[in-house]
Structure formats: C-alpha cells, structure tokens
Amino acid sequence: MNDDADLPKADHADSSLTDPAAQGESVSRLDADTQPDEDPQLDAKGISRRQMLTRSVAVMGGAIAAGVGIPAIFYVAGPAAEDSGTAEWIRLGAASSVEPGTPTLMKANVERRSGYLTSTEELSVFVTTENGTSFEALSNVCSHLGCRVRWVDEQDGFFCPCHNAVFNADGTVASGPPPRPLDQFEVKVEESQIFIKGIA
User: Fold this and answer.
1) Burial level of 189, CB count in 10 A (0-12/13-18/19+)?
2) In 12, 52, 53, 181, which residue has its Cα 20 to 30 A from 119's Cα atom?
3) Is-contact 199 85, C-beta < 8 A?
4) In terms of Cα–Cα distance, which of 109, 104, 76, 72 is closest to 90?
5) For the whole prediction, is pTM greater than 0.85?
6) Residue 35 pLDDT > 60, yes or no?
7) Which of 57, 82, 107 delimits the end of a domain?
8) Are residues 93 and 56 part of one domain?
9) Which of 6-20, 48-62, 91-105 has the highest mean pLDDT?
C-alpha cells in the first residue's frame, strides 16, 4: 500500500516566493516604504536651516566688522585730513617795538599738530618798516640749507654763516649759493599789534 497516497498534498508554494518578478516588486515596495521623507528642515526655497544659520552668522559678522572698522578708519584718517595745513594769523608783538629803517627780530610760539601729536615751535621773523605804519616780515631761515640768518648793519643786509650767503634788506639774494630770496609773510596790524599769516 502506498502511504504517499494517504498523505495530504501540500498547498502550492506562494508564487511570490519563487517568482523573480514578484520578488522585485516586493523589494521596490520595501525601498519605497523605507525612503525618508523630504527633509523637514528645507524651506520653500530649498534652503536648509544650517545654510540659513551660516548666512545669518556671515551677515552679523559683516555688520560687526563695519561697525568697528568704519569708526576706526575715521579715528586714524581724521587727524591726517586736518593736517593739510591751515593759514592762520600769528601775533608777533607791538608795532611800536619795530625801529624804522632797521630790521627787528620778533618771535612767536606756534603750536603745530601732526596726527594726534602737538608740538610747540618757535617762529622767528625779521620785521621792517620805513614809516611806522607799513610793515614787512621776512623769514630768518636761509633758503639754501635752512641755517639762521642775522642782520649785519655794516653790510646793510642779512648774513648766513653756513656758506657766507648774503641777502639784501628786502630779502633778495646778494651773493652766495641760496637759490631764492628769503620767505616773506603777509602782515597786518590790529590794535597796534603785528600779525603775520603763517601755517600753524
């Protein structure tokens, strides 16, 4: 007797387990089910929160740099812009102290500013007059190498001891190496005081 005839026949195997096409569909469904959803951190324009944070930090950094840098530039460049040299009237002294016909050396202290540094410099000028009402002022600095000149009555002129240069009473060159006359200042008299216009 055949015992196999009495045994119940097994159901047919699930075709999905043996059919390659069915297996492929299952894998596809599995991949689709496990695919992550769209990044919730992306905004409507496709910019992530990290990118947005990076851009925000860059903007804030630029604003801070501008806030610090621009005042610093004005702090450094401001005094330099003011040092262009402004002509100011400088008081020398009483007009009555100048003897007609004889150059009189007059002095004044002038404050000069370079950036944030201020220094005091002594300015010396020869003032001359013929009538006591009209005045002229000449620098006592030789136009050759910057030595100080002095008035010499016997020569009726200004003498520079550095290279024996001689200037006439009006400041023009009489002899020696100076390339030009003595510098001349604009003069005014107010309330019996002599003022010259110079760079302060």
Assistant:
1) middle
2) 181
3) yes
4) 109
5) no
6) no
7) 82
8) no
9) 91-105
Q: Which amino acid is at 88?
A: E
Residue type, 121: E
Query: Whole domain around residue 113: which residue ranges?
Result: 87-199
- Are 113 and 69 part of one and the same domain? no
C-alpha to C-alpha distance for 179 and 2, rounded to whole angstroms: 143
pLDDT above 50 for 10: no
Alpha-helical segments (H) within the chain = 3-6, 15-18, 20-34, 49-82
CA atoms within 13 A on the CB side of 102: 9
| Average pLDDT, rounded, for the chain | 76
Does one domain contain both 188 and 94? Answer: yes
Q: Considering its fold, how many domains does the chain have in total?
A: 2
161-186 tens-digit pLDDT = 999 999 999 999 999 999 999 999 99
If you compute the radius of gyration of the chain from its CA atoms, what whole number of angstroms results?
48
190: tokens are 């107010």
Dist. CA 119–CA 116, nearest whole Å: 10
Sheet strands (E) in 130-183:
135-139, 150-152, 157-160, 165-168, 173-175
Would you state the structure tokens that stand for residue 101, as one six-digit string? 């016909």
Residue 184 within a domain: yes
For tokens 């569909």, what's the residue? Answer: 25
β-bridge partners, 123: 108
